[in-house]
Amino acid sequence: MSPNMEILPSIPEHKPAIIHVSHQPITLGNWYKKINWLNTTLVVFIPTFGLYLTRTTPLTRPTLIWSVLYYFCTAFGITGGYHRLWSHRCYSARLPLRIFLAFTGAGAIQGSIRWWSANHRAHHRWTDTMKDPYSVMRGLLFSHIGWMVLNNDPKVKGRTDISDLDNDPIVVWQHKHYGKCLLLAAWVFPMIVAGLGWGDWWGGLVYAGIVRACFVQQATFCVNSLAHWIGEQPFDDMRSPRDHVLTALVTMGEGYHNFHHEFPSDYRNAIIWYQYDPTKWLIYLLSLPPLNLSYSLKTFRSNEIEKGRLQQEQKAVNRKRSALDWGLPLSELPVMDWDNFTLRAKEDGSALVAIGGVIHDVELFVNEHPGGKTLIKSAVGKDATALFNGGVYEHSNAAHNLLSTMRVAVLRGGQEVEMFKHRGMEGKQNVFEQITRVEKPPMSAIAA
């Protein structure tokens, strides 16, 4: 039985209930069981010790250049290898590139290809749920590093198919020998290069090894945290992933995360030429002659991409539209016949005007009418459709919009407006359609 399990009293003749330590309250007797000590050592203790060593370890220019170069190599091992090649199969790679990516990916100290990809596929399949291994719904800190340093119940994580990874000899070999690969790629190799190259063995270990891995880890973790927290959602807003240039700069282009979650099979994260995505550029360059190391680069159909973008833009327009006064919908207006309309206008003194089959109360606007009181008063109790649409003046778009806020009734038999009222077809109209606007001004005003 795992030391992270606890047996609770149970009903006789039933098996004892076992609760994982992650679901148990913190006590003095179990707090240490909640921590994944191996991961905590690799992503907290060793990086902290490496940063402490920089206080007494000189940083030479060759070591700095080598550290930055190896940083990008190992970061590409994650973004171009673990992520886009093995997790999403966005492209295919020939053996030399696959070996390079498996080696540099191990140097990033983020687990084996198999372990990393299994978690990432679960993240995509179960985004923003408890089955998501690093769900941002459990807090920004948890999604960034908490999921790594805490012991989590393996039964909670959503399952995914990784049979393709189990049939990949490089993935299988690296997973089986991951400890040795990590030691060599993360610390020994960068130390040897600096030592044999310019005699800086210790600086190579501290800066190109420990500190460099620390920065790669934290940059990658930002994809799980910041990329689900800051930025825009130009393709979908049903889930948390977002696009932001800051996250892209930190993660070698992985920050255009809203696009990636919508189109995970696309080898690109950024699709606009000026957006920062060096991982995409490297994959593309490696596909060109004479290298030909990557091939079958997958891209999603631009038609579907633009659909998502347009739908989000429409949502934004709808949200803005809902905050404005467009007047009462036709379906909510009463139906008034012509005789009642003229009677109210003459005997009751109501400033009612019929335009386009809709009756409007212009009482409060008489004194504000730019054309003067006389013109607007002359239309009271009449069908002013022709006057309003060019008979006297071709009113502007703003005038039609303002007029819609004055609706009080639908005129019986007034053009096709009553049909919308009785058949409940208001929702089928274009939200920006102005019922008072006619294509061609009628020659004269005709009462319904």
Question: What is the strand and helix layout of this fold?
Answer:
Layout: E1 5-8, E2 17-20, H1 37-53, H2 61-87, E3 92-93, H3 95-106, H4 113-125, H5 140-149, H6 163-166, H7 169-176, H8 178-198, H9 201-224, H10 245-250, H11 257-262, H12 278-287, E4 294-295, H13 302-322, E5 335-336, H14 338-346, E6 352-355, E7 358-361, H15 373-378, H16 385-388, H17 397-404, E8 407-411, H18 417-423
Parallel strand pairs: 5-8
Antiparallel strand pairs: 1-2, 3-4, 6-7, 7-8
Helix pairs in contact: 1-9, 2-3, 2-4, 2-9, 3-8, 8-9
Which sequence of strands runs across the widest sheet?
Answer: 5-8-7-6
Number of strands: 8
Measured as a percent range, the helix fraction is 40-55%
Radius of gyration: 34 Å
Please work out how many helical segments DSSP would assign.
18
| Overall tally of structural domains | 2
Distance between the termini: 87 Å
Q: Major sheet, described briefly?
A: 4 strands, mixed
What is the molecular shape? elongated
Q: What is the N-to-C order of secondary-structure elements (H for helix, E for strand)?
A: EEHHEHHHHHHHHHHEHEHEEHHHEH
Report the structural category: alpha+beta
Q: What's the rounded overall pLDDT mean?
A: 88
Oligomer: single chain
Strand content: 5-15%
Low-confidence stretches: 424-432, 441-448
Describe the structure.
It is a single chain. The chain is an alpha+beta fold. It folds into two domains: 35-311, no CATH class; 330-428, Cytochrome b5-like heme/steroid binding domain (Flavocytochrome B2, Chain A, domain 1, Roll). Helices cover 48% and strands 6% of the residues. The strands form three sheets. Strands 5-8-7-6 form a four-stranded mixed β-sheet. The termini are far apart. Residues 424-432 and 441-448 have low confidence and may be disordered.
